[in-house]
Amino acid sequence: MILELAVQFCEMLVVLLLAPLLAGYVRTVKARLVGRRGPPLLQPYRDLLRLLRKEVVLAHSASWFFRGAPYLVFAATWVAAALVPTFATGLLFNYAADMIAIVALLGTARFILALAGLDVGTSFGGIGSSRELMIASLAEPAMVMVVFTLSLLAGSTQLSSIAGFMQGPGVGLRVSLAMALVALVMVAIAENARIPIDNPATHLELTMVHEAMILEYSGRHLALIEAASFVKLLLYVSIIACVFAPWGIAASGQGLGAYLAGLAAYAGKLAVAGFLLALFETAIAKMRVFRYSDFLGAALMLGVLATLLLFVSRIA
Amino acid sequence: MILAGLLGCAAALLLTGAAALALHGRRLAAPVVYGVSLVATTIGLLLAGRALFSPDLPGGTLSLPIGLPWLGAHFRLDALAAFFLLVINLGGAMASLFAVGYGAHEETPGRVLPFFPAFLAGMNLVLMAADAFTFLFSWEFMSLSSWALVMAHHRRPGNAAAGYLYLLMASFGTLALLLAFGLLAGPSGGYEFAVIRQTPPGAAVSAVVLVLALIGAGSKAGLFPLHAWLPLAHPAAPTHVSALMSAVMTKVALYGFIRIVFDLLGSPAWWWGAAVSLLGGVTAVMGVLYALMQNDLKRLLAYSTVENIGIVFIGLGLSLAFQANEMQAAAALALTAALFHCFNHSVFKSLLFFGAGAVLGSTGERDMERLGGLIHRMPRTAFAFLIGAAAISALPPFNGFVSEWLMFQAILLSPNLPQWLLKFLVPTVGALLALSAALAAACFVKAFGITFLGRARSDVARDAVETDGWSITAMLVLAALCLLAGILPGYFIDALAPVIDALTGSSLPRQEQLDWLTIVPIAQSRSSYNGLLLFFFIALAASLAAEAIHRFASAAVRRSAPWDCGFPDPSPATQYTAGSLSQPIRRVFGTVLFRASEEVRLPPPGDASPAQLRVRLHDIPWDVLYAPVAGVVGFVAGRLNALQFLTIRGYLTLVFGALVALLMVLAVWQ
Amino acid sequence: MSALFDSGELVLLALLAIPALGAALLAFVQDDRKGAWLNVLVSFITFGFALGLLLERPATGPFLIVDDLNTVFVIIGTLVAFTTSVFSASYIGYELESGHLTHAHLRFYHAMYQMLMFGMNLALLSNNIGLMWVAVELATLTTVVMVGIYRTPAALEAAWKYFLLGSVGIALALFGTILVYLAARAVVGEGLDAMAWNVLVANASGFDPAFLNLAFVFLLLGYGTKVGLVPLHAWLPDAHAEGPTPISAVLSGLLLNVALFAVLRFKSIMSANPGALAPGPLMVTLGLASVVFAAFMLYRRQDIKRLFAYSSIEHMGVITFAFGMGGTLANFAGLLHMALHSLTKSAIFFCVGHIAQAKGTQRMADIRGLTVTHPQLGWSLGLGVIAIAGLPPMGLFMTEFLIITSTFARAPLLAIALGLSLLVALGALLLRLNGLAFGEPDARNEPSKASFLPIGLHLALVLVAGIWLPPALVAWFQYVAALLS
Amino acid sequence: MISSLAFDVAHLFAGSLVLVSFMLLYQDRMTGLINTFALHALVVSFSVAWQAHIQEAPHLYITAAIALGIKAVVIPVVLHRMIVRLGIHRTIEPVVGIGLTMLAGIGLIALSIMVMLPLTAQAGTLAREDLAFALSVILLGLLMMISRRNAVSQVVGFMSIENGLILAATGAKGMPLVVEISVAFSILVALIVIGIFLFRIRERFETVDIHLLHEHRGEQP
Q1: Has residue D197 got a pLDDT over 70?
Q2: Mean pLDDT for each consecutive 10-residue tract of chain B (670 residues)?
Q3: CA 20 to 30 Å from A23, out of A118, B6, C46, C464?
């Protein structure tokens, strides 16, 4: 019991600590791919610490909600990430939330952030929020359809059980799984404000979504929101990893060795995923705002198709 | 006896309505009436709760020698009725509590006070009625009293028309239900529910009854496309009545549907589930899209009611589909989700309408384009409204999420259904449900963000003051309920068990003894959810972060002008408006579903006049369904009207014609 | 007590004599107030004697008869006549002040009022079909005169239309009566017996069905003209609209019922004869036609009294429909519907009369926001319209529930047609109510010295009937209904 | 015991009444119309008198007398003066051509006979024939009323209906109240005539109607 609790908490810490590293890693890889040296690998940590130490500059029209939002966003995202099996499944609290609940938790974070964008009452916050809402209104259903596909297949919405099922012999190569993967990746890209939906590096106002929403934030608030977005990226990567690449992931109560092995495997997956993401981002260009709906609509359609095709492949 | 007590409450409410007439014009009238309603509904609430939670339900039947002679009025209290009585009396009590304070804003109390208790009584009676006549009588009485309340502000433009459409649709629905009961009772004319239960009708008849019930109860609940009256009528009433109509009366309509289809109609056919759940899905998505297009706060809330009704119907449809295939456990899950959502919706929709009412009372504005920044002037209202908005957007750890989560769990059982149509349909409905949930979040970001956040868009909004204590209390109680039902859903699910058991012959496993108060609808390995832990973790993480940062990093704050990329504009007009916030979503969905058209008028170069953007939305069901009917009636009336203006000779010709015709009939017949 | 006049016959004679004497007396009363209140008094005494019928029932004579059926009609009739006379007292006073009527007219009016009562009581109580015919004609003629009493061109035109159509109806009814006599003569022999209703019913089985069929066609059309069944209705709206409002109330509340009563009498003769064609289908057809037609006609009305006149056509259609469907349940519903309709519709006309006086117009376009300017009148009208539209808690909901469901069990399509057309009518009535009672009030609002006793009494009765019917009444009505089927 | 001759005579009268009804339909001059109606009334009164004779029912003579006095003499005279006063003694605008009206009339007679045929002999052949004729007279009267755009000819039509009724009533042997009824009817007719006379109802109801409709009704077509 105590051990399980310890493992659970250390997973939470791992998630929190690895997140900025992943972000920095992706940045570096991107820089290298376009032939720049890029910032050092640990730059995100430095940024966070610097921001944390700075004072907060609040607009006059900011309300208590504006000040509370970052903490809630950070907490919701972190909790969601902590509930995803990273290096081990069946942790103590994994059953507290299944995949649907995790998606919904991210929804909570987004809800709060979108409201925070509206709080100061500037036009940029509005742009960010309204675009974020449009993206979410398509991305979330797509995500839910992916969840459908997986859970119909695995007969469970628990990530641990799904991971267990995916390791087992029951799964062959299935067209619907491929579709689900593609849809999931597209959703992940949209949700994490990556190219082609959004550009985390940009400060060209009119194309911003996430950046515009948090434009008025500064100091520790900004730090928390940045941290939350790092964690979110990690979360999606972990989901993909634990569902589509469940190899080496430790089951609960296998002892310390298994956990360490799982941790190593997890780090490896993160590295691969980060590299692929960087590669993808350097390869394509950003979209116009009103093409988003096509992109995400495609994701949604893929999700639905995956769910429906599941039945075909079932009887086949 | 509990039933007698509940009837007593209804009678007391009716008398209060009568007394309100006597008290007309007194200053004391409003507090007295609302106070008595509060007491009566609270007693009703307790009695219903007692009936629901006591293991062996002392329901019993009561028949009074009133109403239809030689039939009498039959009343019965079973688990289903008890649950819905709980819901509506909770809503009624909260509305009364809110109104004790809010009633002060009422300019024509004489048009509200007599009908408010009567409305409550009518709803109570519908739930207790145990024969067709009493049911329809109370049902129509409920419609009538609520119509009177809608007409309370008849001098505002559009309200009278809204009331007209409302009562017309209500009577249409009642006619449908009347025919449904006529079919159920059969030629023998056994109108008691007990008699109807003993003689389940044939397949064809049941199908017709289902359709009639969908029309009758659906038109009252706001099922697409019979919803047209709802967003007009609900906002037209005084706000605490809007809350009742939207949050509570729609539940009575759902009760009617459940009572007829699940209880009286016998075993369902599989395609019923398909039809009902598909209708529900379409209703949910259309409702929330309509809501997103609104700028009137109360109308937005009314449309979101349509959405939630759709969600409930999805659950009911699933339950029918599962029942038709003897998958009782799954049916129980779906029905639990539906009923739990009924309860949740009644809670957070009341809360949201109260918030809208508080805003309306202190600013006199319903148009969000003229609101904003109210969080500074009305912090408590804003807080409560925020909770409600999060809950209705199905966000954990609040209650809205739990019921939708259960709904998803039920949907995920669809592969076990034998029928191919259902196999394909149910996941599609699931997609619709997910879409509506996401859109609902967007919709309520708009509702809360534009109304309470940002900068005030008008003087009234700038000078708003926090509302009175009664209203705040009502809102906070409801907010607390939203959280409680969200983090301790197990107890609520267990409370539903007798209802589900009575209707599906099965029920979910007991939840309360599971460790950490997790809820597990089917099996631990399959799916589980623990709102308590989530809430605990979020609270912990947030407070830890805050604590740590303030201690070890900086806690300094400096106020200044907004950054706004270096060009802060003092005018609030530069904020995003309600219309512009939903514009991207309108671009995505509206062009097809609303035939939305935008025309931009730019002034010629050198002209300083502002550019204009006009958006035109079409209400397609209105265009294809309601307008033609009105057109036909008008046309026929116009044509027949000529007969009013014949000459006497013309009329004599009519008589002559009739005579000759009859004589010919006679000659032929003999 | 002498054998010649036992108390029952006394009651019977009183029912006929008091109105007749009252008419004669009122013709000579100079003072208007006295006249009005004497009118009330006489009507009240008549009503009292009508109640007496419940206690003591006289033996059936060759000319007069008292049975359960006409007792129902007589009591309702005399009650409405009494309340209407109360209303008319407060109404006519205003008409005098505003100079619409002269004293001479008023005397005439009151005398005619009692004459009308006499005619209707005679028609209801007569056992002889010829006598009944004469009485109905008398009642018609008196109402014709009263419709035309304002002497405005519109009033005269309405009276004339009523008169001519009524006369043709009378002619047809007479021919039917003659045919019935001929049919009866062959069986029961010549003379009075062959026209005595109770004898006819007793021996109807032996009559020549062909005779009866032909007769019923003429009788249905003849008396149906008085009932206001489509397509014989033409006189009704104008007669209601142009006459004094008390007369509109009496027309809708009483005269239509009397004509319907005549039809019922002959219907029961018909149904007593196995060979004759069932009268049901004919009545159902005419009834449904009336409902549908009136429902649509309601939409384009601009005159408030004409509106409610058409609604009377609609409800007469419903009642005829119910009786045509037959069966105890439908007949019961029909009887109850008729009684409640008389009460409701006359109450509505009371309101309308006061409203028209207060607003100085009958054009609905010029009457707005009554609940604001005249709350009592406005809400009473609202309640009346709700009742007449068949919404609970008023009694007509119950009767329409019974009619539709009992029909639905036998002829679903008919029931649906009836239900839908009732819905159409409800739409029209509510639309008008919206305009009249709600919205921004119009400028003109003189206070009206309305007497709310009759309105309140009628509406209260209808409300109570909607919630609780006394078992005695139910049993009695059921007996009558069984008698009819 | 009544001889067959009696029947034939009664029959003759009834038949000739139908004939006169046809003549009424045929008229296209007001004066001619009124005169023909006087003839109509005359025939009726003879027929009634004959019935009184063969039924030994003296009270029927009163009916006959009324018919003779009022409808064959007084009313025609009044009408004559009236049409002169109203200046409408020229023509009577028929709605459809006379010929068509006559055809319709023949159709009506056929109809009335068809309707009467199934009557069993129980009623007695005479009654049957008589009724057929009476019914034809009534229907023809109605046809008259609706095929003339003219108040006076409508009154004439109505009175011919009444004659038909009296024919039927008197034909029905031993029927009570016949006299009363005929009296009541005569009052009715008188009232109608007075109505036209007093209220100056012009040659056409149309003009009256439309005029009133637009000005006084508060109802626009």
Answers
A1: no
A2: 89 92 84 93 93 71 84 89 94 94 85 93 94 94 95 89 94 94 83 87 90 94 91 92 94 95 89 94 95 93 96 96 92 94 96 95 91 92 96 93 93 86 89 94 95 92 90 95 93 90 86 76 81 92 92 86 81 86 87 84 85 85 91 93 84 92 87
A3: A118
B92, part of any domain: no
CA distance B221 to chain C (A): 20
pLDDT tens string A112-121: 999 999 999 8
End-to-end CA distance of chain A: 44
Chain A residues with beta carbon closer than 8 angstroms to that of B434: 140-141, 144-145
Q: For residue B480, tell me if it sits in a domain.
A: yes
For B643, the domain range is 625-669
Nearest to B644 among D114, D146, D219 (CB): D219
How large a percentage of chain A has pLDDT more than 90?
A: 40
| Residue D184 with chain C: CB contacts under 8 Å | 134, 137
Nearest-CA distance from B334 to chain A in Å? 17
Range of the structural domain that residue A89 is part of: 2-315
Closest-CA residue of chain C to D214: C154
| B556/A56 CB distance under 8 A | yes
> Which of 596-655 (B) contact D at CB < 8 A?
641-642, 644-645, 647-649, 652-653, 655
C303, D219: Cβ pair inside 8 Å? yes
| Beta bridge partners of residue D148, listed in sequence order | D94
What count of CB pairs under 8 Å joins A to B?
Answer: 286
Find chains touching chain D: ≥3 CB pairs under 8 Å. Answer: B, C
Residue D147 or C447, more confident: D147
Q: What is the predicted ipTM?
A: 0.90
Does the beta-carbon distance from C426 to B186 stay under 8 Å? no
Structure tokens at B595: 């035939």
Would you say residue B79 lies in a domain?
no
Count structural domains, chain A.
1
Number of domains present in the structure of chain B: 3
Q: Helices H, strands E: what count in chain D? A: 9, 0
Residues 6 or more apart whose CB falls under 8 angstroms from that of C42 comprise C18, C19, C22, C25, C26, C85, C114
- Please give, rounded to a whole number of angstroms, the shortest distance from the CA of B654 to a CA of chain D: 10
- Between CA C196 and CA D177 the distance in angstroms is 12
Residue B545 within a domain: no
Cβ neighbours of residue D219 closer than 8 Å, sequence gap 6 or more = B644, B645, C300, C301, C302, C303, C306, D213
Task: Say if residue B635 is in the same domain as residue B595.
Answer: no
pLDDT in tens, C381-407: 999 999 999 998 899 999 999 999 888
Long-range contacts of C476-479 (CB under 8 A, 24+ apart): C476/C68, C476/C72, C477/C72, C477/C332, C477/C335, C477/C336, C478/C328, C478/C332, C479/C68
Residues B494 and B633 in one domain: no
Share of chain B above pLDDT 90, in %: 60
The pair phi, psi for residue B379, each rounded to 5°, is -60, -40
Chain D residues with CB within 8 Å of chain B CB: 95, 108, 111-112, 114-115, 118, 139, 142-143, 145-146, 148-149, 154, 205-206, 209-210, 213, 219, 221
Interface with C, mutate which of B70, B71, B646 (most C CBs under 10 A): B70
Segments making up each domain of chain D, as ranges: 4-216
B288 with B374, same domain: the answer is yes
Give the confidence band of A214 by pLDDT, cuts at 50, 70, 90.
Answer: confident
Average pLDDT, chain A: 87
Exposure b/e, B51-60, CB count within 10 A at least 16 = b: bbeeeebebe
Q: What is the value of pTM for the model shown?
A: 0.92
Q: From the list B518, B526, B546, which residue is nearest A156 (CB)?
A: B526
Q: For residue C467, give the chain B residue with the closest CA.
A: B67
pLDDT at residue C5 above 80? no
The angle formed by the CA atoms of residues D52, D56 and D60, to the nearest 5 degrees, is 30
